[in-house]
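The following record pairs a protein chain with its ligand, 3-methyl-2-oxobutanoic acid.
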Amino acid sequence: MGRTTIRDIEAKHDAGEQLTMLTAYDAPIARCVDAGGIDMILVGDTAGHNHHGYDDTLPVTMDEALSNTAAVARGTEEAMVIADLPFLSYGTSLETSLENAGKFMKEAGADAVKLETPPEGGTTVEIVDRLTELGIPVMGHLGLTPQRMNEIGGPVVQGRDGPDSAVADQFVETAQELVSAGVFALVLEAVTEPVAKRITEAITVPTIGIGAGRHVNGQVLVITDLLGLGNEGYRFEKTYADLETEITDAVGTFVDDVSQQAYPAREHVYEPIDE
Ligand code: KIV
């Protein structure tokens, strides 16, 4: 089986099947995620706090994001690899946005890019339009958009006023504009379930939720949260493994083995040829 394409995503959505996406930031984890049968791997800017050790997503540079994306692309064979455009790598001008997005395809081997859009749309809709016109598949991202966290005032759940509110109307309108501009899927982050349902029913492309409830067309989680390596404590998270304990225990066992000269043992030692 080859790489998942946007036609495969469309076909799965048309068949009423749920889509799956996880983040990954390096080759070994991406290899495991790919082998697990995921549809899409997002090389998210959540690499900022889950990989590079920053406080949030804002400091992630183009070089870091390109390097992470290339590693994930090299480590995978089947999942579609989607590169998340870092903060201010798009939006400052149309030309810079197109050039930077193009680097993820030309230099890092991404199959698509993702960018965040504020509730009222604006210039990012135009950028999506130009990118798709040039042949770069784009995944949209609405709801809580962490690159605007300082402007929003924190990790605030969006759409608390319900599906008939002016905010919900705005999200639906912008989601429809993004679809007209060519997005092949739309991430909905930290949106109340009724608002996510309304957006999902109003558009033709699949919605992929993270903290957006059950009435969407697929789910995405941050890999370190899923593996128990970086739980941020949000209500929507589900931890499927406890790698923090496993890794800490393995390191502790290695430290004990070396201290007690139990490692290396005879089977780990290189012998001269004539022995
Ligand atoms: O950067 C990221 O990991 C994301 C997901 C949370 C959707 O945008």
